[in-house]
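Ops channel
N.P.: pipeline sanity check, posting one input/output pair.
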């Protein structure tokens, strides 16, 4: 695309110059004729003098237009930024290092803070819904007892049954919303932990220049990790140091 622009620009420049030169030659003939008539003097030379002034003005306008066109083309071409050479990515040394996720989960302070708060909320919501469920079951039992004994007329029975159904629907909806809220909090916590782990691993790897960083945990697919290539302690130290610094 840049080559096409340059070719088009050169073509326009040549056309402008050639047209300007042609116009100058054509109008120059009129100027010369007018000058010869003006030099001969006489009353009849006045109209020719007017033509001479007009010819000079036309030539100057054409030349000015040519200069402006070249000026604009020059700076249009200058707007294109030359490509900046990007710094090549640093190549690793081919080494592989490992991080034990079980150790991170057990010893990273942020993990315990986030997961503990979620667990507390989960237990709180569980108690709330258990109590609401028990209350609903008790109301349903009372309704069945009263209905069986015939102490409720049809209108009362219908109203009580409708109320129980509405309360049951509200309970189910509230429970679903509570579960969704806890899941969103848990997902956000995992993302926050993963982001901080990635950042800490990169900082630690600056001294190793390893090409690969793997994580492993109990029950995972990695059966063995050479302890000589395990950087878990260094990453864990970096994680807690950064966490304490941010939460002073």
């Amino acid at each position: 695309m840049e080559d096409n622009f340059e070719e088009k620009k050169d073509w326009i420049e040549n056309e402008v110059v050639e047209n300007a030169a042609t116009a100058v030659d054509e109008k120059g003939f009129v100027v010369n004729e007018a000058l010869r008539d003006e030099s001969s003097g006489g009353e009849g030379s006045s109209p020719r003098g007017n033509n001479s002034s007009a010819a000079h003005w036309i030539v100057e306008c054409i030349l000015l237009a040519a200069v402006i066109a070249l000026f604009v083309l020059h700076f249009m071409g200058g707007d294109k930024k030359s490509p900046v050479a990007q710094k090549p990515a640093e190549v690793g040394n081919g080494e592989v290092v490992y991080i034990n996720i079980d150790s991170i989960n057990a010893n990273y302070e942020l993990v315990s803070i986030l997961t503990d708060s979620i667990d507390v909320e989960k237990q709180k919501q569980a108690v709330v819904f258990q109590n609401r469920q028990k209350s609903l079951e008790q109301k349903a039992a009372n309704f069945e007892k009263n209905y069986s004994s015939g102490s409720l007329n049809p209108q009362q029975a219908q109203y009580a049954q409708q109320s129980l159904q509405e309360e049951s629907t509200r309970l189910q909806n509230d429970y679903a919303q509570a579960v969704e809220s806890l899941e969103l909090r848990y997902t956000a916590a995992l993302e926050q932990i993963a982001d901080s782990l990635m950042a800490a691993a990169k900082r630690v790897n600056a001294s190793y220049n390893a090409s690969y960083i793997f994580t492993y945990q109990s029950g995972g697919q990695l059966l063995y990790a050479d302890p000589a290539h395990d950087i878990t302690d260094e990453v864990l130290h970096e994680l807690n140091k950064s966490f304490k610094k941010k939460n002073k």
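N.P.: looks fine end to end. The first strand starts at residue 96 and ends at 100.
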